[in-house]
Amino acid sequence: MRALRRLWSIGTGRFGILVVAVIALTALVSLFWTPFDPASVDARARWSDPSWPHLLGTDGNGRDILSLLMAGARTTVVVAVGAGIVASLLGLALAALGALTTRWVRESVAVLVDILVAFPVLIIAMMITAVWGGSLAVVIWSVGIGFGVNIARVTRPELRRVLQSDFVVAGRASGLSPVQNLVRHLLPNVAPVFIVQLSWGMAVAVLAEAGLSYLGFGAPIIQPSWGVLLGDLQAYISVHPLAVVWPGLAITVTVLGLNLLGDALREAADPTLAERTPRARTHLPEVVA
Q1: pTM of the model
Q2: At residue 25, does pLDDT exceed 60?
Q3: Dihedral of CA 211/217/221/223: which sign?
Q4: Spatial contact of 203 and 252, defined as CB atoms under 8 Å apart
């Protein structure tokens, strides 16, 4: 609770929490209610301007854009959470292998992680989806694998550092197994770094899903998705520019909120950052003067 209050006291943290809460609530509400059926087509209402009852207007098929955005929030939440779970499991497993095993295993894992990190997450996702076809499950696994190696690269040095701590050595001397030491001592101490990386990974997952769906590698056309909607509307940007703004704005705000939440989590987990920043800001005018 104290960590949550510290996070809420940071401006970027408040913004990130509000964005995540709004997206999650929208996805939950869309399971039971949307202003219109996202799949319903009304030729008489094609390209309606924002007005009642279509608050954000309609697309070229007469579908309500607000309903499509609400339904697309479900896809965003599923991809972000699913990719986060895959990235967490893979990243922590690779980090544990790279920190707690014998030397040749540690070095092999470090080389493997360094090789995979050289490939951008979106490129890995595109390669996997090109082989297995475009689907939401493939996007989740590909983005999760792509960002899992990033989590492993950042978490592994932290595990190695904590491994030399006195309480870990004492736990090992008291008879704790490596797995027990990992669960009781190592993971709780690397949790702040891991949570920050996870929030950034979920932002990458949202952006990757939108990009892959826009390119035709992601969610099926029949499934509501912000990337699919953006791809459908971008051909009419010169005629109906406002219609393209809404899915692009939804993607931008969501990714921005998750990134700022990650920055706030890092600041909340390391109070020295919050202490240094105000002093630097107040000292700056004196230096300039």
Answers
A1: 0.81
A2: yes
A3: negative
A4: no
